[in-house]
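Session log. Operator J.P. requested a structure for one protein chain; no other inputs attached. Running the standard single-chain path with token output.
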Amino acid sequence: MQDLLSIPKQVRNTRAKAWILEMVRLCQPAAVQWCDGSEEENTRLCEELVDAGTFIRLNEAKRPNSFLARSDPDDVARVEERTFICTKRRVDAGPNNNWRDPEEMKASLRPLFEGCMRGRTLYVIPFCMGSPESPLAKIGIQISDSPYVVVNMRIMTRMNEDLWDRLGEDGDFVPCLHSVGKPLGEGEADVPWPCNPTKYIVHFPEERAIWSFGSGYGGNALLGKKCLALRIASWIAKEEGWMAEHMLVLGVESPEGEKSYVAAAFPSACGKTNFAMLIPPKEYAGWKVTTVGDDIAWLWPGEDGRLRAINPEMGYFGVAPGTSEESNPNALASASANTIFTNVALTADGDIWWEGLTDTPPEGLTDWKGQPWDPESGQPAAHPNSRFTAPASQNPLIDPAWEDPEGVPISAIIFGGRRATTMPLVFQAFNWTHGVYIGATMGSERTAAAAGKVGEVRRDPMAMLPFCGYNMGDYFHHWLEMCSQIRDLPRIFHVNWFRRNAEGGFLWPGFGQNMRVLEWIINRCHGKAAGHETKIGWIPHWGELNTDGIEGFGKEDFQEVMAIRGDEWRPELLSQGELYLNLYDHMPKEMVFQRELLASRL
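Structure written below.
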């Protein structure tokens, strides 16, 4: 064990050294590797993963330096029921989180971690969320026994040994402990995807620490993503006066060269990545849309009085099914090389495939479980939550300022859900407080594929319900308090691409045509669109939203997609009331007043 406890000279941080040595003693690995994020290290680990059967090297001509991984069928997604926020007071975690007392949780976890890395290598992974020069940058140190995690973290974060110098002797960092929970006995053969039926994803926000056990998949194991960049960061942001949000950030430039940036929050299955990488229709020649980030934004009041945003991530952990040349060619381009695919199908010639990639599946597919795929089986070839981990730098639309440590100035914040009725295509909040209310009550209707009653609205405030690291009522307070910190407030909007007609067809074509809505939003921010006031907010006049070139879309269609009907909004108010009851003790009075004002207008 003595060799395992030796520490490289560049590691001088007193707290880091003590914590790492404590974790080595607890987890009892066979070896310790101090990761440096280098190309040489990455190549070696990928080869080891190929040799272990965890990775399949893809066709080099079609998918250079890319690999396919297949997880255990019981380890395929986030495990929200096993995700915990551990604070000294239950009320600080709120009804939106699973809570356990920190000391009680550690007493439960320590026996699981004791000896959990026997027969394995413990990897020490230094990483940074955000450009190291950014005022919001956060350094983490993840300990993991999964080489799959190491190579994915290299894509998703800024991972290099220079961070030890930045930490110095007393710099702050977020300790992240992770294990797949599958120790190996002497002579015991490993499996391609080790994991444990017992899973915990645990956050200690008061001490800014993360412990994850049992899962090797996605946000359960890549602890810089949802765990640090949202759950822990949202707690830090509340204390320090900034915002950690589940938002994309995009830039839009007019033919005249006027550049604006917007941040947008959408629940799952609402077109978030497609919007982040939007391609304007042919009628918008000369317009440019660029991507700053597709999933997470950190925002703070800049010295210029504007709300500024950075993308703390370096890569995309994108959902594969449904991504195609038609829906999102830039996401495919981002994953054209140097990409790790997880739980997609394998073609006969060593490439990847998933449902929606092409209209017709190629012959000879091997499914995500490694079995020959039968198109008549009724089973998907790729898992519905299959993913690709790709460098953001490979996105053809990447914004020139995407790594600017000072961030980009935000002109608009957009909220949106999947609603077949009630919500018009676009409307603008009356003011910041009304905008917070719109985000707080945002929701999507369940589809036939989701648990619960079809058509039932699932509330997902600011798309943060699974990711807010503290009481959601206090989170609304924080949003309201930010108003006084920002001199030039962004305008707040709500969009709904998914409204349907009586026959069940979509009223709006969506995808690239959403550029037309984005243009109106930008024009409103710059005082170039009049709009008109309604009971729920400001909406465009007919003719003010450019619909030229949309085949078969006339004034009546516009009026239908923009309709505001009292008989639909009254049930909406009642449905919102359930959220208010759940958060009653901490619900800001401003939110109660906004609901009463809306009721009086309707």
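Operator note: The longest strand covers residues 121-129.
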